[in-house]
Amino acid sequence: MLKSLSGILAGAALLTAVTASAQAADNEVTIAYQTTVDPAKVAQADGLYEKATGWKINWRKFDSGADVIAAIASADVDIGYVGSSPLAAAATRKLPVETILIASQIGESEALVVRNGAGIDKPEDLIGKKIAVPFVSTTHYSLLAALKHWQIDATQVQILNSRPPEIAAAWARGDIDAAYVWDPALGRVKESGKVLVSSTEVGKWGAPTFDAYIASADFSKAHPDVVTAFVKVTGDIYADYNKDPKAWTANNDNLKKVSQLSGAKVEEIPALLAGNHFPALPEQVKLLGNNTVDALAKTSDFLVQQKKVPAALSDYHPYVTDRFAKSAIATN
Hints:
Its main location: periplasm. Keywords: Signal. The protein is built from 17 helices and ten strands. By secondary structure, it is α/β, with parallel strands linked by helices. α1 (2-9) runs parallel beside α5 (65-73) and α16 (281-305) packs antiparallel against α17.
């Protein structure tokens, strides 16, 4: 995936002012989302983004951040949901994007699950086993970080590049021994497996991960009001959830909407939401600075060590901005 991604990123010049002008004329924006479990799915289901922007939104579902990056590079998507690992890879290859929102700080919602009966009781039992993971994803980064922590060379295991739906299917067939993935595939594999490690623990070992919304630099420059409205709606729904998570998840309508757009089972959603942290607008301003810049730099250094990208940049500040979070707060 990374080789094909690099080829597409090389053509990033396709993101031109002509594209931005056409979007302005049509008042349409294409936003990429993934099947993650998060409060913003309710705002998406309720059409709050359309109401706030006044624009028609074409929502497109993707199975991995690498695919979202490729779509943004080819000007098919204007705003997209990606993990910190594909974001670091994209920034390192100088794709003209900006991180406009931290969608979640990842914890228990991503995990390495081993199959029952596969003979994997401890980390060293992974040697020689087949582990599926979406390449250039947050779970790929976490898997490599976990193997490094356990002093297991990545060449000692069989790491297979698979998207979440493919992982669930391969697991059902018995083709793989373990998988590092997110929901809803995570829930499927946990039904006949056990968690060996989650991203909460891997983060404590020095490799934290997060999800983010990014926008093409051309689009955010041409339509800052649309990006600000998008950030405000997301920040407000996060604040509503954080105010009282138990009350929020007691609302069955909320759970059904999240389930509809994520594929997760309704009864699983409260625990899955609790597995991540969703920063509201004031915290977004704090995070969208050196915190995120440093995280991207560390992730990129790790990807260089793993030979996933050729070299890290000296500065990742151009790929992170807090101006839309600040503008969103100012509109309150």
